[in-house]
Amino acid sequence: MNDLFKGFAKAHAEQNGYLLAATLSPIASSANPQRLRLISKSSNSSSVKGDIKHFIKSNSSHQRNLGHEEVKGWVEVYAAYWNAIGDFVAVEDGKSTWTKVYESWKDLTSALIRGYNNFGFEAWTIPCLYVVGKYLRLFAIRSDTERSRSANDNSGGAALIQDDFDPETEKQSQLRDCEQHLKRIFTLCLNDRAPLEESRKWGIYFIINLLFKTYFKLNSASLSRTILKTLSAYKGDMPALSAFPKSQRVTFKFYEGVLFFLEENYIEAEKYLVEAWELCHKDANANLERILTYLIPCRLLTSHLLPTKAILEPFPRLQKLFLPLAQCIRKGDLRAFDIALQEGEDEFVKRRIYLTLERGRDIALRNLLRKVFIAGGFDELKEGETTPVRRTRVPVAEFRAALCMGSGGELVDTDEVECLLANMIYKDLMKGYIARDRGIVVLSKKGAFPGTGV
Amino acid sequence: MMPSWSSAQHPPGVVPQHPPPASYAYPPNPAFIPVQVRQGFGHYTPPPPPPPAYNMYASNAAQAQASAPGTTTNASPPAPVEQPKGGKTEWPESVRRYVQRSFHPENEDASVSRAELEAKLKDTIGSAKENNSLYTIDWDNMPLPQALVRADREAQLKLHHHAASLSLTTPVYTDDKFNPRKRKSNDFANNDTSTPPWHSTNSGRSLEDRISYSPDKRVALDDPKSSKFQKEANKRKRRFENEYKAANISSPSPTPPTGPIVGTSEVLEKKYLRLTAPPVASNVRPERVLRQTLDLLKKKWRKESNYSYICDQFKSMRQDLTVQRIKNEFTVSVYEIHARIALEKGDIGEYNQCQTQLRSLYAMGLKGNHIEFKAYRILYFIHTANRTGLNDTLADLTAAEKEEKPIKHALDVRSTLALGNYHKFFQLYLDTPNMGAYLMDMFVTRERLAALCNICRGYKPDVKLRFITEELGFESDADAAQFIIDYQGQHLLEDRTEYIAFLTGKAGNLFESSRASAFQKVDIKGQI
After folding, report:
1. Transmembrane residues, as ranges (chain A) (predicted)?
2. Which of A379, A429, B506, B526, by CA, is between 20 and 30 Å from B332?
């Protein structure tokens, strides 16, 4: 326990928030693997507050910057921490549950928040909020899994007065609860009116990122929008995002991008994902992979671009996901595309990119139709013409033949072929029109397939 | 897999003709005890005192009645116990919870007056503060002041054996804040000779611990300005008491001390009322009765087709199932039937509630028509353009399920729409299994508009009207023409002796704005 408060005193002397936060970590350091157990054993519930007070005073006596009120607040925080660590150690010994750990960690969170509200904790200490918030979320998730394993616990007292069962809410009830507390931290940071250099506003993006993660996990990503709206209402008072640590910026941009992606706003999504991609540390492969997972489908729809082998080089998993599809799209092989999509379906659905990738079929179709156009060759030169012009009147039957081949020999009837052609025209993937009574497609002489060079 | 009632068996795509629904009314001689929902205060009759035998296990009857005097207690808002003396004192969260719990109506004890309760509470917290044990006491498990008061009395009882009964039975209302109107309810409170110690059997710390009454709300109660709110609250409370009373007369019975309740009501029909307090067993029908109810409702639906009545009845059935935690194949069939009826009447909000439940019931491995309903679910998400929902549904499907006809159909509908293949989409529309057509009808108009936009851009100079009829799945050329005219396209139709032409080349962006507005978010909350 003495070591703990040596760290505490040192952090206060240097005003080093991250050092201070480390004292509140529920993870044993590699230098001292017994750290938690030692802390837990070093006191008991009746005397813990007195002990902590003693340690804080004896270690920080030479410092005048720690006010009486502050000491009081920190005693509460570390008492709650000691309590939580006790549960944590007990779980490792199989004598407690993650639900208990979560509950006691929640008390710690509350004590810490109170510290800022009532005991005048200074803004440099906000990394404590990071650590506490981070583990609150992790413990909530563990508690939820634990409870679902011991299935069918007839908890749900509140459910007793509901009209219907709500199994979804029950399944993640701790994480939902956790969200409430993270939001308290969010408000705590957001509403600080202190001058910017000593404001808790500097904690805002870390906590927003935590909230984003929580919402995505809760399968209600759209709730992130409310956070963003609140944030934009405070925009004027907030330090610019560029002034925050890079790691927080990358995460924030990534989630903002994915949010747009899920809302099918691929143009905006691409913008944010590219920013995240450029900011991301070059060795953070897992994160780069995450960004690409969404950036690739985005690019496919916005600019019809497929990933090169080079860019996928360091990511074997992404190669497996995207390369087969990319090949089929390039070749215009509809049948193979359908199969590849089906084979990857589980993975795609899991990453929420299936519905987007599916639309890549349009590009595959475009490429197939383009081949027909090119195979049609050129019209005979008329008088006065020097450069040959491609044949722009293409019988629907030719497209139909290609489609039947592309679909693996399956017969596609003419009306459906026309329907697909009309779609291509509507989506500006092809320029021209269908003359139905003559059974031909009249394509534009200038760029029948925009952006493809013909 | 066809629905079990005749009126639902329409060919898909055909809008069913129903007799106009009868006005919403209960039959003159209902099988249940009619409950007057709002009763004037003056008409309030005190419930008969419960048989003394129930006192020991805190029957529901006693519980319901005991909350009647509670009306008066509630009338005076809880005094702020946390009155700081001088400086601002920070009360631990747990203490606040404890105070809230003490004043929670659920914990009211007719035998412990408001003043006594407050005094005890102040005493308890005050001494904790003096001993600096505010943060060390386990407030969540601390006995409530009511219990402490009773314990004190019991101690006294042992000392003065004979004198005890008086003080036990007469609640002492010293608070002069009561207005005469409210005092009336005291009259019967005094008649009430029972002192139900129900919270001792109220399954420990179940409900009150889980419901967090935010401190703000308590403050609002303290606010004199909110008397209107309070009045409303009291009114509401009285309404529920009446409800309980009616039920108690029919069959008073004790609750088992723990676990979900087991209903004892024998009435077949019950009006739906949203619960605001834990349910009372005597007002809840057990599964055996609910099965009879379902048969009755099926018959009634066939005969009367009164949707608002049926929906109401189904909701109360669902509620009874939920509060008793009955999750079995019978539950599945209740939800399935309600879902089908709601579908048929286009009550998409109610349908959605049912399908959400069905999803989890199927996930528990319960048997039912899961193929049919999973297919509906897909179609429903197409209708509401809910990509998250669709994605989740896809994730739920097994490979075998994807091959089942209704699901395959729904999946094909989804993918044809995603790729703009309206040709195939309308073929699928005309061949929809089960009741999926009711769902598809909900979004077929917007898809027609989308297809029309496509055709107008893609074809020049014109197409035959018959082509539109066939491609967009209309019943006849007349229907197709009407559709075009409905969207201001009359000038695009041209009669050419042999056929009617649709001048796509001249349409420009005519249908674009209709299309855009048709695709705006669908309001799913609209319930009938």
Report:
1. none
2. B526
Answer with the one of B250, B272, B302 that is the final residue of a domain. B250
Domain boundary among A188, A217, A244: A244
B405 vs B40, which has greater pLDDT?
Answer: B405
Please tell me the distance from the alpha carbon of residue A352 to that of residue A261, in angstroms, as a whole number: 10
A52 and A192, same domain (yes or no): yes
Number of domains in chain A: 2
Domain count along chain B: 3
Identify whether residues B472 and B504 lie together within a single domain: yes
Contacts of B360 in chain A (CB under 8 A): 165, 167-168
Percentage of chain B with pLDDT > 70?
A: 59
CATH label of the domain that carries residue B472 = 1.10.10.10
Q: Among A337, A315, A335, which Cα is nearest to A324's?
A: A337
Same domain for B448 and B429:
no
Residue pair A339/A329 in contact (Cβ under 8 Å)? The answer is no
Contact call for B421 and A350, based on CB within 8 A: no
The pTM assigned to this predicted structure is 0.69
Quote the domain boundaries for residue A142: 2-149+170-244
What's the pLDDT score for residue B204?
42
CB spacing of A352 vs B277 below 8 angstroms: no
Q: How far is B46 from chain A (nearest CA, A)?
A: 26
* Pairwise CB contact (< 8 Å): A161 & B420: no
Q: With a CB-CB cutoff of 8 Å, which residues 5-64 of chain A face chain B?
A: 45-46, 49
Domain holding B219, by residue range, is 43-250
Token representation of residue A47:
């005397």
CB contact under 8 A, B419 and A358: yes
Q: Is A176 found in the same domain as A34?
A: yes
Q: Other C-beta atoms within 10 Å of B487: how many?
A: 18
CA distance A79 to chain B (A): 10
Q: Are residues B101 and B217 in the same domain?
A: yes
> B139-149, pLDDT tens digit by residue?
777 777 777 77
- Of A197, A222, A244, which closes a domain? A244
Neighbouring CB atoms inside 10 A of A1's CB total 18
Tokens 């407050």, located at residue: B118
Is B189 inside any structural domain? yes
Residues of chain A neighbouring B279 (CB-CB closer than 8 A): 160-161
Structure tokens of A8? 């505490």
Answer yes or no: do B321 and B353 share one domain.
Answer: yes
